[in-house]
Amino acid sequence: MIQERPPAIAEPSLATALSEARRAPRLRLLLDYDGTLVPLAGSPELAAPDEELLSLLAELAALPGVDVDIVSGRPRQTLEEWLGSVPLSLWAEHGFWYRPSPDAAWHAATTAGLDWMNRLRPILEQFTDSTPGSLIEVKSASMAWHYRGAGQEFGSRQAHELRLLLDHAFSNQPVEVLDGHKVIEVRLQGVSKALAADQIERSAILDTAVIAIGDDRTDEDLFRALPGSAVTIAVGRRPTCARFRVEDDRAVRVLLRRLLATKPSPLGDGRGGYPLAVASTA
After folding, report:
1. Helix spans in the chain (H)
2. Candidates 32, 67, 215, 219; catalytic one
């Protein structure tokens, strides 16, 4: 269960927090992909990056002192195909796979057995057959059942039944069942976006500011694992432990465009200068 951050001493505005982060000697951006950099699509293959996004990410990665990480639930093959030529770090399957740069090899977080996937597949296939518009996405350490293309009411009922079944059937397996945006995913236990936070902390350079942005429950693992000084931003209005919110992926792109200023400057006054913050969550 996601816990909202408790009331605290008054937070700075999002614009102020971003401006302060931009003034740091180094800045690290941790960005989710689906629902954060691009709109959620009806099926996974429809969410390929557009030229504007590729250009934006390349410009950010080229800024002196700025490092960009894409921390996604996508398979590594997809991230490599879509973003492999951009000079940034890629985290695939919620941190199971990591590639620090375009010329580097992919590294797996663990070599644990995956026999449970053979038991999982027929269950997901059964629900796919009985739920028109749903589909299965197979990854190297997880499997996901997407139902964005299904009827809203029926799809939600099927997802609820599937979640109950999976919780029971895999209660003694080293896996966890996740609810996402119109997706149920079963992944290897202990593999989460918090792995990115751990790696970043181990390799952290002094005086590095961190900005993390994500729209899904899986991004809460990352937000919670980062130090309290990090600027954590939830996309949308779901429950979150993030410090701030923005409305949607379009607002995220506006935010990132503002960070492109080579000389740090105020990013807005929080009163509508650009469509960024919904509110602080404090």
Report:
1. 14-23, 51-62, 76-83, 116-130, 152-169, 194-202, 217-225, 249-259
2. 32
Spatial contact of 39 and 45, defined as CB atoms under 8 Å apart: no
50 is catalytic: no
User: What is the rounded distance in angstroms from the CA atom of residue 84 to the CA atom of residue 99?
Assistant: 10
Residue 145, SS3 per DSSP: strand
Q: pLDDT tens digits, residue range 182-209?
A: 899 998 888 889 988 888 777 767 789 9
Residue 2 has pLDDT above 70, yes or no: no
Q: How far is CA 262 from CA 22, 60, 64, 182, 192, in A?
A: 9, 10, 8, 39, 33
DSSP 44: G
Rg (the chain; Cα; Å): 19
Residue 201 CA neighbour count, 13 Å, CB half:
12
What is the rounded distance in angstroms from the CA atom of residue 77 to the CA atom of residue 84?
9
Residue 105 Cα distances to 24, 71, 111, 149, angstroms: 30, 16, 16, 35
Cβ-contact 65, 27 below 8 angstroms:
yes
